[in-house]
Amino acid sequence: MVVQFGGVTAVDDATFSVEPATITGLIGPNGAGKTTCFNVISGLQRPTKGRVRFRDQDVTSLSVDGRARRGMGRTFQRLEAFGSLSVRDNVMVALDINRGLRGLFTNGRKDADALLERVGIASYAEERADSVPTGTARLLELARALACEPRLLLLDEPSSGLDEAETDDFGSLLQELAASGVAILMVEHDMDLVMAVCQELHVLDFGRIIASGTPAAIRQDRTVQEAYLGYSEEVVA
Protein backbone atom coordinates (compact mmCIF):
# COMPACT_ATOMS: atom_id res chain seq x y z
CA MET A 1 0.00 0.00 0.00
CA VAL A 2 0.98 3.63 -0.55
CA VAL A 3 -0.50 6.53 1.43
CA GLN A 4 0.34 10.12 0.55
CA PHE A 5 -0.79 13.30 2.27
CA GLY A 6 -0.02 16.05 -0.20
CA GLY A 7 3.70 15.80 -0.85
CA VAL A 8 4.34 13.56 2.16
CA THR A 9 4.48 9.80 1.70
CA ALA A 10 3.35 8.31 5.01
CA VAL A 11 3.36 4.69 3.83
CA ASP A 12 5.62 3.72 0.95
CA ASP A 13 4.85 0.41 -0.77
CA ALA A 14 4.24 -1.53 2.44
CA THR A 15 2.97 -5.04 1.74
CA PHE A 16 2.40 -7.73 4.36
CA SER A 17 -0.06 -10.42 5.38
CA VAL A 18 -1.54 -11.68 8.64
CA GLU A 19 -2.43 -15.35 8.95
CA PRO A 20 -5.29 -16.86 10.97
CA ALA A 21 -4.40 -18.20 14.42
CA THR A 22 -1.21 -16.11 14.58
CA ILE A 23 -0.04 -12.95 16.32
CA THR A 24 1.82 -10.60 13.99
CA GLY A 25 3.64 -7.50 15.19
CA LEU A 26 3.94 -4.24 13.25
CA ILE A 27 6.73 -2.31 14.95
CA GLY A 28 8.95 0.67 14.34
CA PRO A 29 9.77 4.20 15.53
CA ASN A 30 7.11 6.78 16.26
CA GLY A 31 5.89 8.31 13.01
CA ALA A 32 6.91 5.29 10.94
CA GLY A 33 3.39 4.83 9.52
CA LYS A 34 2.05 2.03 11.69
CA THR A 35 -1.25 3.63 12.65
CA THR A 36 -1.73 4.83 9.07
CA CYS A 37 -1.45 1.19 7.97
CA PHE A 38 -4.11 0.29 10.54
CA ASN A 39 -6.34 3.07 9.22
CA VAL A 40 -6.04 1.70 5.69
CA ILE A 41 -6.73 -1.87 6.75
CA SER A 42 -9.78 -0.91 8.83
CA GLY A 43 -11.18 1.49 6.23
CA LEU A 44 -10.62 4.83 7.95
CA GLN A 45 -8.08 5.87 5.29
CA ARG A 46 -8.17 5.13 1.58
CA PRO A 47 -4.77 4.16 0.17
CA THR A 48 -3.30 6.32 -2.57
CA LYS A 49 -2.24 3.09 -4.24
CA GLY A 50 -2.67 -0.56 -3.35
CA ARG A 51 -5.41 -2.91 -2.22
CA VAL A 52 -6.63 -4.46 1.01
CA ARG A 53 -7.68 -8.11 0.85
CA PHE A 54 -9.49 -9.85 3.69
CA ARG A 55 -10.55 -13.49 3.70
CA ASP A 56 -9.78 -13.77 -0.03
CA GLN A 57 -11.90 -10.73 -0.93
CA ASP A 58 -10.89 -7.25 -2.03
CA VAL A 59 -12.34 -4.93 0.62
CA THR A 60 -10.58 -1.72 -0.44
CA SER A 61 -13.85 -0.01 -1.37
CA LEU A 62 -15.76 -1.18 1.71
CA SER A 63 -16.66 1.19 4.53
CA VAL A 64 -15.47 0.77 8.10
CA ASP A 65 -18.75 -0.86 9.14
CA GLY A 66 -18.71 -3.07 6.06
CA ARG A 67 -15.33 -4.44 7.07
CA ALA A 68 -16.47 -4.81 10.67
CA ARG A 69 -19.42 -6.90 9.52
CA ARG A 70 -16.99 -9.17 7.70
CA GLY A 71 -14.98 -9.72 10.86
CA MET A 72 -12.51 -6.90 11.48
CA GLY A 73 -12.19 -5.55 15.01
CA ARG A 74 -9.94 -2.76 16.19
CA THR A 75 -8.65 -0.84 19.19
CA PHE A 76 -7.06 2.59 18.97
CA GLN A 77 -3.83 4.23 20.11
CA ARG A 78 -5.93 7.09 21.44
CA LEU A 79 -8.66 5.69 23.66
CA GLU A 80 -12.08 5.76 21.99
CA ALA A 81 -14.41 4.44 24.69
CA PHE A 82 -17.81 6.06 25.27
CA GLY A 83 -16.76 8.00 28.35
CA SER A 84 -20.20 8.77 29.76
CA LEU A 85 -21.29 5.11 29.61
CA SER A 86 -20.35 2.42 32.09
CA VAL A 87 -17.69 -0.13 31.22
CA ARG A 88 -20.43 -2.76 30.85
CA ASP A 89 -22.60 -0.54 28.65
CA ASN A 90 -19.67 0.11 26.31
CA VAL A 91 -19.47 -3.60 25.63
CA MET A 92 -23.25 -3.98 25.43
CA VAL A 93 -23.39 -1.35 22.67
CA ALA A 94 -21.01 -3.42 20.56
CA LEU A 95 -22.91 -6.63 21.31
CA ASP A 96 -26.26 -5.07 20.43
CA ILE A 97 -25.00 -3.65 17.13
CA ASN A 98 -23.23 -6.84 16.11
CA ARG A 99 -26.12 -9.13 16.94
CA GLY A 100 -28.83 -6.75 15.79
CA LEU A 101 -27.32 -6.71 12.32
CA ARG A 102 -27.75 -10.48 12.25
CA GLY A 103 -31.23 -10.46 13.78
CA LEU A 104 -30.02 -12.00 17.03
CA PHE A 105 -31.20 -10.75 20.41
CA THR A 106 -29.75 -12.37 23.52
CA ASN A 107 -28.85 -11.46 27.09
CA GLY A 108 -26.43 -8.61 26.39
CA ARG A 109 -25.68 -7.89 30.04
CA LYS A 110 -24.68 -11.48 30.77
CA ASP A 111 -22.52 -11.71 27.66
CA ALA A 112 -20.92 -8.32 28.32
CA ASP A 113 -19.99 -9.43 31.83
CA ALA A 114 -18.49 -12.62 30.41
CA LEU A 115 -16.29 -10.57 28.07
CA LEU A 116 -15.23 -8.25 30.87
CA GLU A 117 -14.34 -11.30 32.94
CA ARG A 118 -12.35 -12.70 30.05
CA VAL A 119 -10.17 -9.60 29.76
CA GLY A 120 -9.86 -9.27 33.53
CA ILE A 121 -11.82 -6.10 34.31
CA ALA A 122 -15.17 -7.43 35.55
CA SER A 123 -14.78 -5.47 38.80
CA TYR A 124 -15.04 -2.23 36.82
CA ALA A 125 -18.34 -3.10 35.10
CA GLU A 126 -20.36 -0.37 36.85
CA GLU A 127 -17.72 2.36 36.56
CA ARG A 128 -17.93 5.15 34.00
CA ALA A 129 -15.50 4.46 31.19
CA ASP A 130 -13.89 7.89 31.54
CA SER A 131 -13.09 7.27 35.22
CA VAL A 132 -11.12 4.02 34.99
CA PRO A 133 -7.31 3.75 34.74
CA THR A 134 -5.75 3.87 31.28
CA GLY A 135 -4.79 0.19 31.35
CA THR A 136 -8.36 -0.77 32.24
CA ALA A 137 -9.69 1.38 29.41
CA ARG A 138 -7.35 -0.45 27.02
CA LEU A 139 -8.78 -3.76 28.14
CA LEU A 140 -12.30 -2.34 27.80
CA GLU A 141 -11.58 -1.52 24.17
CA LEU A 142 -10.37 -5.08 23.67
CA ALA A 143 -13.56 -6.48 25.23
CA ARG A 144 -15.64 -4.23 22.98
CA ALA A 145 -13.73 -5.40 19.92
CA LEU A 146 -14.22 -9.03 20.95
CA ALA A 147 -17.97 -8.39 21.20
CA CYS A 148 -17.97 -8.14 17.40
CA GLU A 149 -16.55 -11.68 17.10
CA PRO A 150 -13.59 -10.64 14.93
CA ARG A 151 -11.66 -12.87 12.56
CA LEU A 152 -8.96 -10.18 12.38
CA LEU A 153 -8.12 -8.12 15.47
CA LEU A 154 -6.12 -4.91 15.03
CA LEU A 155 -4.57 -3.75 18.32
CA ASP A 156 -2.86 -0.34 18.43
CA GLU A 157 -0.54 -0.13 21.47
CA PRO A 158 -2.85 -2.30 23.58
CA SER A 159 -0.52 -2.76 26.56
CA SER A 160 -0.04 0.96 27.20
CA GLY A 161 -0.96 1.67 30.82
CA LEU A 162 -0.72 -1.96 31.97
CA ASP A 163 1.64 -2.94 34.76
CA GLU A 164 3.99 -5.91 34.47
CA ALA A 165 1.56 -8.50 35.87
CA GLU A 166 -1.30 -7.16 33.76
CA THR A 167 0.91 -7.27 30.68
CA ASP A 168 1.78 -10.91 31.35
CA ASP A 169 -1.92 -11.76 31.66
CA PHE A 170 -2.66 -9.77 28.52
CA GLY A 171 -0.02 -11.71 26.58
CA SER A 172 -1.58 -14.99 27.69
CA LEU A 173 -5.01 -13.75 26.57
CA LEU A 174 -3.65 -12.84 23.13
CA GLN A 175 -2.21 -16.32 22.77
CA GLU A 176 -5.57 -17.85 23.74
CA LEU A 177 -7.35 -15.71 21.16
CA ALA A 178 -4.90 -16.70 18.46
CA ALA A 179 -5.24 -20.36 19.40
CA SER A 180 -9.00 -20.02 18.81
CA GLY A 181 -8.30 -19.00 15.20
CA VAL A 182 -8.27 -15.20 15.40
CA ALA A 183 -5.64 -13.38 13.33
CA ILE A 184 -4.05 -10.62 15.43
CA LEU A 185 -2.05 -7.68 14.11
CA MET A 186 -0.49 -5.64 16.89
CA VAL A 187 1.30 -2.30 16.97
CA GLU A 188 3.23 -2.26 20.22
CA HIS A 189 6.32 -0.62 21.74
CA ASP A 190 6.72 -3.10 24.61
CA MET A 191 9.38 -5.26 22.99
CA ASP A 192 9.32 -7.86 25.76
CA LEU A 193 5.64 -8.48 25.03
CA VAL A 194 6.16 -8.40 21.26
CA MET A 195 9.04 -10.86 21.35
CA ALA A 196 7.14 -13.18 23.71
CA VAL A 197 3.84 -13.50 21.83
CA CYS A 198 4.38 -12.72 18.13
CA GLN A 199 5.17 -15.36 15.55
CA GLU A 200 5.98 -12.84 12.80
CA LEU A 201 7.19 -9.23 12.84
CA HIS A 202 7.19 -6.49 10.22
CA VAL A 203 9.31 -3.42 10.88
CA LEU A 204 8.33 -0.03 9.46
CA ASP A 205 10.68 2.93 9.16
CA PHE A 206 9.76 6.11 7.27
CA GLY A 207 6.75 4.29 5.84
CA ARG A 208 8.70 1.39 4.36
CA ILE A 209 9.00 -2.16 5.60
CA ILE A 210 12.70 -2.62 6.28
CA ALA A 211 12.52 -6.18 7.64
CA SER A 212 10.12 -9.08 8.15
CA GLY A 213 10.68 -12.32 9.99
CA THR A 214 10.50 -14.15 13.28
CA PRO A 215 11.21 -12.27 16.50
CA ALA A 216 14.60 -13.98 16.75
CA ALA A 217 15.55 -12.91 13.22
CA ILE A 218 14.34 -9.35 13.74
CA ARG A 219 16.27 -9.04 16.99
CA GLN A 220 19.46 -9.97 15.11
CA ASP A 221 18.83 -7.69 12.10
CA ARG A 222 21.41 -4.88 12.06
CA THR A 223 19.18 -2.57 10.01
CA VAL A 224 16.40 -2.92 12.57
CA GLN A 225 18.82 -2.38 15.44
CA GLU A 226 20.04 0.85 13.90
CA ALA A 227 16.56 2.12 13.04
CA TYR A 228 14.63 1.04 16.12
CA LEU A 229 15.83 -1.55 18.61
CA GLY A 230 19.28 -0.15 19.29
CA TYR A 231 22.65 -1.85 18.85
CA SER A 232 23.80 -4.41 21.39
CA GLU A 233 26.88 -6.61 21.30
CA GLU A 234 24.93 -9.21 23.27
CA VAL A 235 22.18 -9.29 20.66
CA VAL A 236 24.43 -9.70 17.63
CA ALA A 237 27.14 -11.88 19.12
Automatic annotation (TrEMBL):
Any GO MF annotation of the entry: ATP binding
InterPro entries: AAA+_ATPase (IPR003593), ABC_AA/LPS_Transport (IPR051120), ABC_transporter-like_ATP-bd (IPR003439), BCA_ABC_TP_C (IPR032823), P-loop_NTPase (IPR027417)
The keyword Repeat is assigned to this record: no
Record-annotated ABC transporter domain positions: 3-231
CDD domains assigned to the protein according to its UniProt record, in alphabetical order: ABC_Mj1267_LivG_branched
The entry's keywords: ATP-binding, Nucleotide-binding, Transport
Protein's recorded name: Branched-chain amino acid transport system ATP-binding protein
The organism of origin for this protein: Nocardioides marmoribigeumensis
